[in-house]
Amino acid sequence: MSDYLFNDFQEISAAQWKQKIQVDLKGDDYNDTLLWKTDEGITVKPFYTKEDQTNISTNAPEKGFTICQSIYIEEAKKANSFAIDSLKRGAKAIEFKAKIPFNYKELLKDIDVKNTLLYFNFKFLTPDFIIEISKFVNSKNCYFNIDLIGNLASTGNWFSNSSNGIKELKKIIESADNAICINTSIYQNAGANSTQQLAYTLAHANEYLNYFGNKIAHQIHFNFSVGSNYFFEIAKLRAFRILWAALLKEYDVTNNKAHLFVKPTSRNKTLYDYNVNILRTTSECMSAILGGADTISNISYDDIFHHSNEFGERISRNQLLILQQECELSDAQNFADGTYYIESITKQLAQNALIVFKTIEKGGGFLKQLKEGNIQRKIKDSSDKEQAKFDAGELVLVGSNKIQNNKDLMSNKLSLYPFIKIRNDKTLILPIIQKRLTEKLELKRLEDE
Predict the structure, then answer these.
(1) Helix (H, G, I), strand (E, B) or coil at 262
(2) pTM to 2 decimal places
(3) Rounded CA gap, 314 and 45, in Å?
(4) Taking residues 172-196, what's their average pLDDT?
Protein backbone atom coordinates (compact mmCIF):
# COMPACT_ATOMS: atom_id res chain seq x y z
CA MET A 1 0.00 0.00 0.00
CA SER A 2 1.29 3.47 -0.83
CA ASP A 3 2.44 5.66 2.06
CA TYR A 4 1.28 8.80 0.23
CA LEU A 5 -1.67 9.48 2.57
CA PHE A 6 0.55 9.23 5.63
CA ASN A 7 3.49 11.36 4.53
CA ASP A 8 2.11 14.47 6.25
CA PHE A 9 1.65 12.75 9.62
CA GLN A 10 4.50 12.77 12.09
CA GLU A 11 5.16 9.49 13.91
CA ILE A 12 4.28 9.77 17.60
CA SER A 13 5.91 7.59 20.25
CA ALA A 14 4.14 5.85 23.12
CA ALA A 15 5.86 8.22 25.56
CA GLN A 16 4.42 11.22 23.73
CA TRP A 17 0.93 9.74 23.80
CA LYS A 18 1.25 9.05 27.51
CA GLN A 19 2.48 12.59 28.17
CA LYS A 20 -0.51 14.03 26.31
CA ILE A 21 -2.91 11.80 28.24
CA GLN A 22 -1.30 12.83 31.54
CA VAL A 23 -1.97 16.49 30.69
CA ASP A 24 -5.61 15.72 29.86
CA LEU A 25 -6.03 13.90 33.17
CA LYS A 26 -5.50 17.24 34.95
CA GLY A 27 -3.50 15.90 37.85
CA ASP A 28 -4.99 12.44 38.17
CA ASP A 29 -2.41 9.66 38.15
CA TYR A 30 -2.16 7.80 34.83
CA ASN A 31 -1.44 4.42 36.42
CA ASP A 32 -4.24 4.67 38.99
CA THR A 33 -6.80 6.10 36.58
CA LEU A 34 -6.30 4.32 33.26
CA LEU A 35 -4.43 1.07 33.88
CA TRP A 36 -6.76 -1.85 34.55
CA LYS A 37 -5.53 -4.93 36.40
CA THR A 38 -7.47 -8.17 36.10
CA ASP A 39 -7.92 -10.58 39.00
CA GLU A 40 -5.15 -12.71 37.56
CA GLY A 41 -2.67 -9.83 37.44
CA ILE A 42 -2.83 -8.91 33.75
CA THR A 43 -2.32 -5.20 33.12
CA VAL A 44 -4.49 -3.66 30.40
CA LYS A 45 -3.45 -0.26 29.08
CA PRO A 46 -5.65 2.43 27.47
CA PHE A 47 -3.67 2.31 24.22
CA TYR A 48 -1.11 0.11 22.50
CA THR A 49 1.60 0.82 19.94
CA LYS A 50 4.09 -1.21 17.92
CA GLU A 51 6.34 -1.15 21.00
CA ASP A 52 3.93 -3.72 22.49
CA GLN A 53 4.38 -6.10 19.57
CA THR A 54 6.16 -9.27 20.69
CA ASN A 55 6.57 -11.21 17.42
CA ILE A 56 6.60 -14.44 19.44
CA SER A 57 5.69 -17.44 17.33
CA THR A 58 2.50 -19.10 18.58
CA ASN A 59 3.00 -22.30 16.57
CA ALA A 60 -0.45 -21.93 15.05
CA PRO A 61 -1.81 -24.80 12.91
CA GLU A 62 -1.00 -24.71 9.22
CA LYS A 63 -4.65 -24.80 8.19
CA GLY A 64 -7.88 -23.37 9.57
CA PHE A 65 -10.27 -25.00 12.01
CA THR A 66 -12.39 -28.10 11.45
CA ILE A 67 -16.09 -28.11 12.36
CA CYS A 68 -16.98 -30.96 14.69
CA GLN A 69 -20.34 -32.45 15.63
CA SER A 70 -20.52 -34.00 19.11
CA ILE A 71 -22.82 -37.03 19.43
CA TYR A 72 -23.86 -39.03 22.49
CA ILE A 73 -24.08 -42.74 21.75
CA GLU A 74 -27.30 -44.21 23.13
CA GLU A 75 -27.86 -46.53 20.18
CA ALA A 76 -25.04 -47.10 17.68
CA LYS A 77 -27.40 -47.16 14.69
CA LYS A 78 -29.01 -43.80 15.59
CA ALA A 79 -25.64 -42.22 16.34
CA ASN A 80 -24.35 -43.43 12.97
CA SER A 81 -27.33 -41.88 11.17
CA PHE A 82 -26.82 -38.58 13.02
CA ALA A 83 -23.10 -38.59 12.19
CA ILE A 84 -23.67 -39.21 8.47
CA ASP A 85 -26.32 -36.47 8.34
CA SER A 86 -23.98 -34.04 10.16
CA LEU A 87 -21.17 -34.75 7.69
CA LYS A 88 -23.52 -34.08 4.79
CA ARG A 89 -24.51 -30.76 6.40
CA GLY A 90 -21.04 -29.32 6.84
CA ALA A 91 -19.26 -31.05 9.72
CA LYS A 92 -15.84 -32.51 8.91
CA ALA A 93 -15.22 -34.12 12.30
CA ILE A 94 -17.28 -36.17 14.74
CA GLU A 95 -16.88 -36.52 18.50
CA PHE A 96 -18.57 -39.65 19.83
CA LYS A 97 -19.35 -39.73 23.55
CA ALA A 98 -20.18 -42.93 25.41
CA LYS A 99 -20.58 -44.27 28.95
CA ILE A 100 -20.36 -47.96 28.01
CA PRO A 101 -18.85 -49.97 25.10
CA PHE A 102 -20.88 -50.14 21.87
CA ASN A 103 -20.94 -51.75 18.43
CA TYR A 104 -18.25 -49.64 16.76
CA LYS A 105 -18.65 -51.31 13.36
CA GLU A 106 -22.29 -50.30 13.25
CA LEU A 107 -21.41 -46.84 14.58
CA LEU A 108 -18.84 -46.18 11.84
CA LYS A 109 -20.72 -47.82 8.97
CA ASP A 110 -20.53 -45.78 5.72
CA ILE A 111 -18.33 -43.11 7.37
CA ASP A 112 -15.10 -42.28 5.54
CA VAL A 113 -12.86 -42.89 8.54
CA LYS A 114 -9.69 -42.08 6.59
CA ASN A 115 -10.78 -38.54 5.76
CA THR A 116 -12.95 -37.69 8.78
CA LEU A 117 -11.50 -36.51 12.08
CA LEU A 118 -12.85 -38.84 14.77
CA TYR A 119 -12.78 -38.11 18.50
CA PHE A 120 -13.86 -40.72 21.05
CA ASN A 121 -14.78 -39.40 24.50
CA PHE A 122 -15.36 -42.34 26.84
CA LYS A 123 -16.39 -42.38 30.50
CA PHE A 124 -14.76 -45.80 30.87
CA LEU A 125 -11.32 -47.32 30.35
CA THR A 126 -11.35 -50.64 28.47
CA PRO A 127 -8.01 -51.09 26.68
CA ASP A 128 -8.92 -54.00 24.39
CA PHE A 129 -12.06 -52.23 23.15
CA ILE A 130 -10.18 -48.98 22.48
CA ILE A 131 -7.37 -50.82 20.67
CA GLU A 132 -9.93 -52.63 18.51
CA ILE A 133 -11.43 -49.29 17.43
CA SER A 134 -7.99 -47.89 16.68
CA LYS A 135 -7.10 -50.87 14.48
CA PHE A 136 -10.48 -50.73 12.75
CA VAL A 137 -10.13 -47.04 11.92
CA ASN A 138 -6.40 -47.38 11.16
CA SER A 139 -5.88 -43.63 10.79
CA LYS A 140 -3.93 -40.90 12.55
CA ASN A 141 -7.14 -38.82 12.29
CA CYS A 142 -8.52 -40.77 15.27
CA TYR A 143 -8.22 -39.22 18.77
CA PHE A 144 -9.08 -40.87 22.08
CA ASN A 145 -10.06 -38.76 25.08
CA ILE A 146 -8.27 -40.79 27.74
CA ASP A 147 -7.23 -38.78 30.77
CA LEU A 148 -6.54 -40.65 34.01
CA ILE A 149 -5.62 -37.47 35.87
CA GLY A 150 -8.59 -35.56 34.45
CA ASN A 151 -10.96 -38.28 35.66
CA LEU A 152 -9.40 -38.10 39.13
CA ALA A 153 -9.69 -34.31 39.16
CA SER A 154 -13.33 -34.20 38.05
CA THR A 155 -14.73 -37.23 39.92
CA GLY A 156 -12.33 -37.62 42.83
CA ASN A 157 -11.50 -41.20 41.77
CA TRP A 158 -9.38 -43.09 39.25
CA PHE A 159 -11.06 -45.17 36.55
CA SER A 160 -9.74 -48.17 38.48
CA ASN A 161 -6.94 -48.04 41.03
CA SER A 162 -4.02 -45.88 39.93
CA SER A 163 -1.55 -48.69 39.16
CA ASN A 164 -4.07 -50.61 37.03
CA GLY A 165 -5.04 -47.42 35.22
CA ILE A 166 -1.41 -46.70 34.32
CA LYS A 167 -0.93 -50.27 33.02
CA GLU A 168 -4.10 -49.99 30.96
CA LEU A 169 -3.07 -46.62 29.53
CA LYS A 170 0.38 -47.93 28.71
CA LYS A 171 -1.19 -50.82 26.83
CA ILE A 172 -3.32 -48.38 24.83
CA ILE A 173 -0.54 -45.94 23.92
CA GLU A 174 1.60 -48.82 22.68
CA SER A 175 -1.11 -49.83 20.19
CA ALA A 176 -3.09 -46.66 19.36
CA ASP A 177 -2.27 -43.13 18.18
CA ASN A 178 -3.40 -39.91 19.92
CA ALA A 179 -4.38 -41.78 23.08
CA ILE A 180 -3.80 -39.16 25.80
CA CYS A 181 -6.07 -36.15 26.23
CA ILE A 182 -5.67 -33.31 28.70
CA ASN A 183 -9.17 -32.19 29.67
CA THR A 184 -8.47 -28.59 30.55
CA SER A 185 -12.20 -27.80 30.20
CA ILE A 186 -12.53 -28.98 33.79
CA TYR A 187 -10.72 -25.90 35.04
CA GLN A 188 -12.60 -23.37 32.86
CA ASN A 189 -16.01 -24.78 33.78
CA ALA A 190 -15.12 -24.77 37.48
CA GLY A 191 -14.24 -21.06 37.46
CA ALA A 192 -10.44 -21.05 37.19
CA ASN A 193 -9.02 -17.85 35.71
CA SER A 194 -7.03 -17.88 32.46
CA THR A 195 -3.63 -17.99 34.13
CA GLN A 196 -4.69 -20.94 36.29
CA GLN A 197 -6.12 -22.79 33.30
CA LEU A 198 -2.85 -22.46 31.41
CA ALA A 199 -0.63 -23.39 34.34
CA TYR A 200 -2.76 -26.36 35.43
CA THR A 201 -3.02 -27.66 31.87
CA LEU A 202 0.75 -27.50 31.46
CA ALA A 203 1.38 -29.16 34.84
CA HIS A 204 -1.33 -31.74 34.12
CA ALA A 205 0.34 -32.70 30.83
CA ASN A 206 3.78 -32.67 32.45
CA GLU A 207 2.71 -35.51 34.77
CA TYR A 208 2.31 -37.79 31.74
CA LEU A 209 5.62 -36.64 30.25
CA ASN A 210 7.37 -37.20 33.59
CA TYR A 211 6.05 -40.74 33.84
CA PHE A 212 6.15 -41.98 30.24
CA GLY A 213 8.94 -39.79 28.86
CA ASN A 214 9.19 -37.71 25.71
CA LYS A 215 8.23 -40.61 23.44
CA ILE A 216 4.54 -39.97 24.19
CA ALA A 217 4.60 -36.22 23.44
CA HIS A 218 3.02 -36.82 20.02
CA GLN A 219 0.23 -38.82 21.69
CA ILE A 220 -1.04 -35.88 23.74
CA HIS A 221 -3.84 -33.57 22.62
CA PHE A 222 -5.92 -31.01 24.53
CA ASN A 223 -9.58 -30.26 25.16
CA PHE A 224 -10.09 -26.56 25.93
CA SER A 225 -13.20 -24.56 26.77
CA VAL A 226 -13.41 -20.85 26.00
CA GLY A 227 -15.43 -18.23 27.84
CA SER A 228 -16.84 -14.86 26.87
CA ASN A 229 -13.81 -12.67 27.68
CA TYR A 230 -13.22 -12.35 23.94
CA PHE A 231 -9.66 -11.07 23.56
CA PHE A 232 -8.38 -12.90 26.64
CA GLU A 233 -9.69 -16.22 25.31
CA ILE A 234 -7.93 -15.63 21.98
CA ALA A 235 -4.75 -14.86 23.90
CA LYS A 236 -5.21 -17.89 26.19
CA LEU A 237 -5.08 -20.40 23.33
CA ARG A 238 -2.16 -18.60 21.71
CA ALA A 239 -0.29 -18.48 25.03
CA PHE A 240 -0.77 -22.19 25.57
CA ARG A 241 0.86 -23.06 22.27
CA ILE A 242 3.89 -21.00 23.34
CA LEU A 243 4.01 -22.72 26.73
CA TRP A 244 3.62 -26.21 25.26
CA ALA A 245 6.49 -25.64 22.83
CA ALA A 246 8.65 -24.36 25.69
CA LEU A 247 7.88 -27.39 27.85
CA LEU A 248 8.57 -29.86 25.04
CA LYS A 249 11.89 -28.15 24.39
CA GLU A 250 12.91 -29.20 27.92
CA TYR A 251 12.22 -32.78 26.85
CA ASP A 252 14.21 -32.33 23.62
CA VAL A 253 11.05 -32.53 21.51
CA THR A 254 10.64 -30.16 18.57
CA ASN A 255 8.14 -29.75 15.72
CA ASN A 256 5.26 -31.09 17.80
CA LYS A 257 2.44 -28.56 17.74
CA ALA A 258 -0.36 -28.80 20.29
CA HIS A 259 -3.60 -30.20 18.87
CA LEU A 260 -6.45 -28.18 20.39
CA PHE A 261 -10.05 -29.42 20.45
CA VAL A 262 -12.11 -26.45 21.64
CA LYS A 263 -15.71 -25.85 22.64
CA PRO A 264 -17.61 -23.05 24.42
CA THR A 265 -17.73 -23.09 28.20
CA SER A 266 -20.82 -24.17 30.12
CA ARG A 267 -19.98 -21.78 32.97
CA ASN A 268 -21.91 -18.79 31.58
CA LYS A 269 -24.79 -20.63 29.92
CA THR A 270 -28.25 -19.79 31.22
CA LEU A 271 -31.57 -21.54 31.66
CA TYR A 272 -33.67 -18.39 31.35
CA ASP A 273 -33.55 -16.28 28.19
CA TYR A 274 -31.69 -19.23 26.70
CA ASN A 275 -31.56 -17.76 23.18
CA VAL A 276 -28.84 -15.42 24.45
CA ASN A 277 -26.70 -18.56 24.67
CA ILE A 278 -26.48 -18.42 20.87
CA LEU A 279 -24.78 -15.02 21.11
CA ARG A 280 -22.43 -16.28 23.80
CA THR A 281 -21.38 -19.37 21.87
CA THR A 282 -20.89 -17.35 18.67
CA SER A 283 -18.47 -15.00 20.44
CA GLU A 284 -16.70 -17.94 22.08
CA CYS A 285 -16.35 -19.83 18.80
CA MET A 286 -14.83 -16.70 17.25
CA SER A 287 -12.27 -16.61 20.07
CA ALA A 288 -11.47 -20.26 19.40
CA ILE A 289 -11.04 -19.60 15.67
CA LEU A 290 -8.78 -16.57 16.11
CA GLY A 291 -6.90 -18.31 18.91
CA GLY A 292 -5.88 -21.07 16.50
CA ALA A 293 -8.07 -24.05 17.46
CA ASP A 294 -7.59 -27.15 15.34
CA THR A 295 -11.13 -28.44 15.84
CA ILE A 296 -14.20 -26.67 17.25
CA SER A 297 -17.37 -28.31 18.50
CA ASN A 298 -20.11 -25.84 19.34
CA ILE A 299 -22.77 -26.51 21.99
CA SER A 300 -26.45 -25.88 21.34
CA TYR A 301 -28.38 -23.04 22.98
CA ASP A 302 -30.44 -25.59 24.99
CA ASP A 303 -27.59 -27.95 25.82
CA ILE A 304 -27.92 -27.58 29.60
CA PHE A 305 -31.63 -28.47 29.84
CA HIS A 306 -32.63 -30.44 26.71
CA HIS A 307 -31.56 -33.77 25.31
CA SER A 308 -29.70 -33.51 22.02
CA ASN A 309 -32.17 -32.57 19.30
CA GLU A 310 -32.00 -31.93 15.55
CA PHE A 311 -32.98 -28.25 15.75
CA GLY A 312 -30.52 -27.24 18.45
CA GLU A 313 -27.64 -29.18 16.91
CA ARG A 314 -28.35 -27.76 13.44
CA ILE A 315 -28.31 -24.19 14.79
CA SER A 316 -25.04 -24.73 16.65
CA ARG A 317 -23.39 -26.34 13.63
CA ASN A 318 -24.65 -23.57 11.33
CA GLN A 319 -23.12 -20.94 13.64
CA LEU A 320 -19.71 -22.42 12.83
CA LEU A 321 -20.51 -22.73 9.13
CA ILE A 322 -21.47 -19.06 8.98
CA LEU A 323 -18.27 -18.03 10.75
CA GLN A 324 -16.18 -20.26 8.53
CA GLN A 325 -17.73 -19.60 5.14
CA GLU A 326 -19.75 -16.38 5.23
CA CYS A 327 -17.51 -14.44 7.63
CA GLU A 328 -14.46 -15.73 5.76
CA LEU A 329 -12.75 -17.10 8.88
CA SER A 330 -11.89 -20.44 7.30
CA ASP A 331 -8.17 -19.70 7.48
CA ALA A 332 -7.97 -17.25 10.37
CA GLN A 333 -5.54 -19.01 12.69
CA ASN A 334 -2.94 -16.24 12.21
CA PHE A 335 -5.25 -13.23 12.06
CA ALA A 336 -4.23 -12.09 15.55
CA ASP A 337 -0.54 -11.94 14.68
CA GLY A 338 0.75 -8.41 15.01
CA THR A 339 -2.22 -7.14 17.04
CA TYR A 340 -0.55 -5.16 19.80
CA TYR A 341 -3.25 -5.69 22.44
CA ILE A 342 -3.63 -9.44 21.94
CA GLU A 343 0.12 -9.99 21.72
CA SER A 344 0.60 -8.08 24.98
CA ILE A 345 -2.05 -10.16 26.78
CA THR A 346 -0.64 -13.37 25.29
CA LYS A 347 2.84 -12.59 26.59
CA GLN A 348 1.60 -11.67 30.08
CA LEU A 349 -0.60 -14.77 30.33
CA ALA A 350 2.27 -17.02 29.27
CA GLN A 351 4.67 -15.39 31.74
CA ASN A 352 2.23 -15.53 34.66
CA ALA A 353 1.23 -19.11 33.91
CA LEU A 354 4.86 -20.17 33.76
CA ILE A 355 5.42 -18.76 37.24
CA VAL A 356 2.45 -20.73 38.60
CA PHE A 357 3.61 -23.86 36.75
CA LYS A 358 7.08 -23.63 38.29
CA THR A 359 5.53 -23.20 41.74
CA ILE A 360 3.49 -26.38 41.22
CA GLU A 361 6.56 -28.31 40.11
CA LYS A 362 8.58 -27.09 43.11
CA GLY A 363 5.69 -28.24 45.30
CA GLY A 364 5.96 -31.80 44.04
CA GLY A 365 3.99 -31.65 40.83
CA PHE A 366 0.37 -31.43 39.78
CA LEU A 367 -0.81 -34.78 41.16
CA LYS A 368 0.67 -34.07 44.58
CA GLN A 369 -0.93 -30.62 44.66
CA LEU A 370 -4.23 -32.15 43.55
CA LYS A 371 -4.14 -34.84 46.23
CA GLU A 372 -3.35 -32.20 48.88
CA GLY A 373 -6.32 -30.11 47.72
CA ASN A 374 -4.27 -27.05 46.77
CA ILE A 375 -5.47 -26.95 43.16
CA GLN A 376 -9.10 -27.32 44.22
CA ARG A 377 -8.77 -24.56 46.81
CA LYS A 378 -7.23 -22.08 44.39
CA ILE A 379 -9.84 -22.76 41.73
CA LYS A 380 -12.58 -22.32 44.33
CA ASP A 381 -11.08 -18.98 45.37
CA SER A 382 -11.19 -17.81 41.76
CA SER A 383 -14.69 -19.21 41.29
CA ASP A 384 -15.97 -17.51 44.44
CA LYS A 385 -14.64 -14.13 43.26
CA GLU A 386 -16.35 -14.53 39.91
CA GLN A 387 -19.58 -15.67 41.58
CA ALA A 388 -19.52 -12.66 43.91
CA LYS A 389 -19.18 -10.33 40.91
CA PHE A 390 -22.15 -12.02 39.23
CA ASP A 391 -24.26 -11.86 42.41
CA ALA A 392 -23.44 -8.15 42.78
CA GLY A 393 -24.33 -7.43 39.15
CA GLU A 394 -20.77 -6.45 38.21
CA LEU A 395 -20.52 -9.44 35.88
CA VAL A 396 -23.63 -9.37 33.70
CA LEU A 397 -25.44 -12.25 32.03
CA VAL A 398 -28.35 -10.72 30.16
CA GLY A 399 -31.67 -12.34 30.99
CA SER A 400 -30.37 -13.66 34.30
CA ASN A 401 -29.03 -10.98 36.64
CA LYS A 402 -29.92 -8.12 34.28
CA ILE A 403 -32.98 -7.44 32.09
CA GLN A 404 -34.96 -10.42 33.35
CA ASN A 405 -38.13 -11.41 31.53
CA ASN A 406 -40.51 -12.32 34.34
CA LYS A 407 -42.87 -13.99 31.85
CA ASP A 408 -40.13 -16.44 30.91
CA LEU A 409 -41.19 -19.74 32.54
CA MET A 410 -38.98 -22.82 32.43
CA SER A 411 -40.23 -25.38 34.95
CA ASN A 412 -42.13 -27.37 32.31
CA LYS A 413 -39.33 -27.25 29.72
CA LEU A 414 -36.61 -29.18 31.54
CA SER A 415 -35.66 -32.52 29.98
CA LEU A 416 -32.33 -32.53 31.82
CA TYR A 417 -31.46 -31.43 35.35
CA PRO A 418 -29.26 -28.35 34.77
CA PHE A 419 -27.82 -28.02 38.28
CA ILE A 420 -25.08 -29.63 40.33
CA LYS A 421 -26.14 -33.03 41.59
CA ILE A 422 -25.22 -33.74 45.19
CA ARG A 423 -23.23 -36.98 45.32
CA ASN A 424 -22.45 -39.05 48.38
CA ASP A 425 -19.88 -41.28 46.67
CA LYS A 426 -16.70 -42.02 48.54
CA THR A 427 -13.79 -40.30 46.79
CA LEU A 428 -10.02 -40.43 47.10
CA ILE A 429 -9.70 -36.67 46.77
CA LEU A 430 -11.99 -33.66 46.72
CA PRO A 431 -13.22 -33.37 43.11
CA ILE A 432 -13.08 -30.11 41.19
CA ILE A 433 -16.70 -28.93 41.03
CA GLN A 434 -17.88 -27.61 37.67
CA LYS A 435 -20.73 -25.17 38.18
CA ARG A 436 -22.62 -22.53 36.19
CA LEU A 437 -22.75 -18.99 37.55
CA THR A 438 -26.55 -18.71 37.35
CA GLU A 439 -27.52 -21.88 39.23
CA LYS A 440 -28.49 -20.32 42.56
CA LEU A 441 -30.50 -17.57 40.87
CA GLU A 442 -32.25 -20.03 38.55
CA LEU A 443 -33.25 -22.37 41.37
CA LYS A 444 -34.90 -19.45 43.12
CA ARG A 445 -36.75 -18.40 39.95
CA LEU A 446 -37.98 -21.96 39.39
CA GLU A 447 -39.31 -22.08 42.95
CA ASP A 448 -41.16 -18.79 42.39
CA GLU A 449 -42.86 -19.83 39.15
Answers:
(1) strand
(2) 0.94
(3) 40
(4) 96
